[in-house]
Each structure stands twice: as C-alpha cells, then as structure tokens.
Design a protein that fits this description.
The chain has one domain: Rossmann fold (3-Layer(aba) Sandwich), CATH 3.40.50.10350. Helix content is 44%, strand content 26%. It contains six helices and five strands.
C-alpha cells in the first residue's frame, strides 16, 4: 500500500521528495490536470491514504473544485484524506464536511517540507503495519 498524491496545480514531485526523505516509500502520483478518470478510484482504494492539494483551500473547494471531489470520494471509500495547500482559508466546518485528517500549508514553495511533515504525521497516526 502506498500513499496517493492527487495535487491540482501543485508540484507533486516536490511533495513526493519530501515524503521519501521522511522515510515513506515513493508515493503514487496521480495527475489531476485532466480531471478524475476511472483509474483514480482504483488507485485511491489501493492506497493507505490520499493527499489532495491545491493552491488555496477555501469554500470553493467544498463547492466543487477537484480537491473537494477527491476528498469526497476518499470519504465515501473509507480512505483517509489529507491536504497540502498553498493557503488554508477553509473553516473547521468545511474541513469536517470534506473529512480532511490533516491540512498542511506549504507557503513560499515549501512543498517538499510539507510532504516530509505529512509523512512524519502519517507514520505516527495512520501508517499500516
């Protein structure tokens, strides 16, 4: 089981480097630029967790942006969902609606550092044996 990264307009390779540097296996990186196709659900269900991401997490995420759709599908499938974002502007209620476990900001291009922070959290919180 691997971590699935599904990041919209964020550098998945940078997040993946951080994840690996912190000690997790290389994640599966799903390109979301073309939307979510039939392989997304298969890859998500095979992952121990999914990471959604976008430049700004806000109410529009809940109301239909792709990161919100990823979180909803993960919740429905019983797969934990986390988020790495450029800026977090979503209130606690919105995060509960999406069932986001961890939300990390990667301001100033700190995607690799955010990936490493998330990996450390996952190793203590949800990593399968």
């Amino acid at each position: 089981m691997r971590l699935l990264l599904a990041l919209d307009r964020l550098d998945g390779a940078a997040v993946a480097r951080g994840v690996v540097a912190a000690g997790l296996p290389a994640p599966d990186v799903y390109p979301v630029a073309g939307g979510l196709d039939a392989t997304f659900d298969v890859r998500m269900r095979a992952a121990f967790a999914v990471v959604a991401g976008e430049p700004v997490l806000d109410r529009d995420t809940v109301d239909g942006r792709i990161a919100g759709e990823i979180a909803v599908r993960a919740r429905q499938a019983g797969v934990p969902c986390h988020a790495i974002v450029g800026a977090d502007r979503l209130d606690r209620f919105g995060k509960r609606i999406l069932d986001l476990q961890h939300v990390l900001e990667a301001s100033g291009g700190g995607l690799e550092a955010a990936g490493a922070r998330l990996a450390r959290l996952l190793m203590t919180d949800v990593m399968p044996d």
